[in-house]
Amino acid sequence: MLAYLVAEVLGIEPVDVRVHPADTDLTPVDLGSYSSRVTLMAGNAAIQATTRLREKIFAAAARKLEVAPDRLEARGRRVFVADDPDRGMTFAEAVALGESMHGVLAFPGSYAPPKRAGKYKGGGVGPSPCYSYSACVVEVEVDADTGDVKPLEIWIAHDIGRSLNPLLVEGQVEGSVYMGLGEVLMEEQVFRKGVHKIPSLLEYKSPTTLETPEIHTILVETDDPEGPFGAKEAGQGPLLPVIPAVANAVHDAVGVRIDETPISPDKVIKALELLRQGKPPRVGPDKLPLFTFPAPRVVESAFGQPAESIAERPFGR
Amino acid sequence: MMRLPEFSYLSPVSVWDAVKLMADHGPAAMLVAGGTDLYPNMKRRQFEPSVLVGLRGIRELRGVRGSSRSGLTIGAGTILTVVSAHPEIVRHYPGLATAAGLVSSPQLRNMGTLGGNVCVDTRCNYYNQSYEWRKAVNFCMKKDGEICLVAPGSSRCWAVSSSDTAPMLWSLAAQVRLAGLAGERLIPISALFRDDGIQYLSKQPGEILTEIVLPPSEGWRSTYLKLRRRGSFDFPVLGVAVALRMEGETVREAAITLGAVASQPRPAPEAAALLVGQRPTDELIDAVADAAFKPGKPLDNTDLTHPYRKKMIRVYVARALHALVHGGSPR
User: Fold this and answer.
1) What is the CATH number of the domain that holds A143?
2) Which residues of chain B lie closer than 8 angstroms to A198, CB-CB?
3) How far apart are CA B278 and CA B176, in angstroms?
4) pLDDT, tens digit, for every residue of A180-199?
């Protein structure tokens, strides 16, 4: 993704850009690649560095072309006068001019998210300002004799901001769906005698291609003001709705509620037995862990919406 | 990363040479055919042979001979992919083709052999673990330890028979040919197994399973159903192998064998006997499934919960019988 952003700024092709794996001896500090933030944060930093580079290249090219730098454009591996495209030079020539004018062309870029509207627990990790919304529809087949839950088809709509490379984004979203299916149907951390009960990829089950249904990915493109060229994330967002969607589909299919993951066949069978006995057809924890939630605080939104105008307070008071 | 320990690999080209090598090296040696189960087990130090006698170079162990009319002989070294797709097996012993085709994944069926699957080591989730994991729980009696961790009061090992083909071959009344220093012997497959997680085979360690001999198929129908979490890779946590000989709509002979509920394939003769001489109505099938379900005693040492696996015996036996009586796909 970083190569696409750099190529876009410089008017060259992604194949012209080489992305070096980070070496923390050589790079400035960053908190890490987590929190669905890499494209957004590293992307914005790359755009800043590349824009600084382009400024220097334009300054040198402009002197040669005898125009003001702000009349230049970089596209198609060329640097040229925007309203007179024949006046220009190859990108490589422009870089050579830039180097003879400025010496080494090396520029850092950085990005810090906008100031948060309030302090909250977990805020210190530097979370992304642009999380996505996702919606998921799942069709399942439930075998009432065996409790088997088989997803038949999945539709997932993901708010990606601007999709920088739709093929890669779809792959990322499908990967999230697959992760969600594994989490909701199979994967379970069980400890016995102080060790993980099944610490191998044979026994810690994840879906195979045979358990992964047709996935229809719908990219909802918006233009996020904070994202690199409007992009948001496809890291963890699309994983989230898959799990409750499967649970709801099971309920819709056979009328039982499985309130914990994984929704394994033995739990479905148990809930169906409860249903037959006229008891609440639900399997899951009996109570929430003891935890006192702090009172929610409503703060001004990132887009300047004042707190008092936010009427809906999702967790009440 | 778990690595293979050092060992010598010997590759005889005849059964007799292999028998002699096994005798020469005694308990230090193990046989290996496809190696799909043995090598991972060696990485986890469940097996620690210093010599492996490879059977892959022995041509006489491969191939399918005979016919369904006179009985079929399958070389123990025949790979599972061939068994699952062989036209005579698919047509006349469909349960065996199905069982062979449900073992693990396509890649492993291309390496794994029928003989290897019949003799595959019993499994237990206290045993199929790395050396370090087993050490952390003080080992079990199947390897390096003293007690059975799934049934600590028990004097025996309860590891689970995890072959897909063995229960089906049992229901088909197959025989197996064993070659040893004292010569060859042909025994019913039911005599090959013992209900003990450690000594689960009755054959001598140096004896080589060379052939699986199927009786004539005239009038027989067969099917195999496998319970496992996923459609590939997984070992059975329940196998149901049913063979019926029908005359018109009446059952003349019946065999039901359960896999993965004991340390050997577990026949259900009382359940099967209910079918003989009867027309298998829905009510009768339910009664047979009930009778097969009762003696099954899975323990908490495989994937899925053991009460669930027991419940599924009834469902799977009923489904297998419906499929055989009414035709069509069992699931």
Assistant:
1) 3.30.365.10
2) 125, 303
3) 31
4) 999 999 999 999 999 999 99
φ/ψ of B199, rounded to 5, equals -95, 70
d(C-alpha B95, C-alpha B320), whole Å: 10
With beta carbons under 8 A apart, name residues in chain A contacting B305.
Answer: 266
Q: How confident is the model at residue B260 (pLDDT cuts 50, 70, 90)?
A: very high
Residue A316: pLDDT over 50: no
Closest alpha carbon within chain B to A262? B304
Cross-chain Cβ contact A205/B231 below 8 Å: no
pTM of the predicted model as reported, rounded to 2 decimal places: 0.90
Average pLDDT over residues A20-49: 85
Residue with more model confidence, B184 or A316: B184
Distance from CA of B287 to the nearest CA of A (A): 16
A313 pLDDT higher than 60: no
Residues from chain A contacting residue B240 (CB–CB below 8 Å) = none
Task: Please name the residue of chain A whose CA is at the shortest distance from the CA of residue B304.
Answer: A266
Cβ–Cβ gap B149/A197 under 8 Å: no
Number of domains in chain A: 2
Segment B56-94, tens digit of pLDDT = 999 999 999 999 999 999 999 999 999 999 999 999 999
Q: Are A256 and A144 in contact (CB under 8 A)?
A: no
Residues from chain B contacting residue A202 (CB–CB below 8 Å): 233-234
CB-CB contact of A302 with A129 (8 Å): yes
B133 touches chain A (CB under 8 A): yes
What pLDDT sits at residue A315?
Answer: 44
Backbone angles phi, psi at B193, to 5 degrees: -110, 155
Residue numbers of the domain that contains A8: 2-113
Burial A2-27 (b: 16+ CB within 10 A, else e): bbbbbbbbbbbeeeebeeeeeeeeee
CB contact under 8 A, A207 and B230: yes
CA distance B153 to B16: 43
Contact B22, B208 (CB under 8 A): yes
Chain A touched by B232 (CB under 8 Å): yes
Query: pLDDT-derived band of residue A314, with 50, 70 and 90 as boundaries?
Result: very low
Same domain (yes/no): A278, A158: yes
Q: Which of A13, A237, A49, A158 is nearest to A41 (CA)?
A: A49
> CA of B308, closest CA in chain A: separation in Å?
6
For B239, phi then psi, to 5°, come to -125, 140
- Closest by Cβ to B230, choosing from A145, A198, A205: A205
Least confident of A126-130, A309-313, B53-57: A309-313
Q: Is the pLDDT of residue A89 over 70?
A: yes
pLDDT on residue A31: 77
Q: What average pLDDT score do residues B179-193 get? A: 97
- Domain B62-119+160-326 fold is 3.30.465
A208 within a domain of the structure (yes/no): yes
Looking at this predicted complex, what is its ipTM?
Answer: 0.92
Class of domain B1-57: alpha beta
Partners of residue A89 on adjacent β-strands: A79
Are residues A185 and A257 located together in one domain of the fold? yes
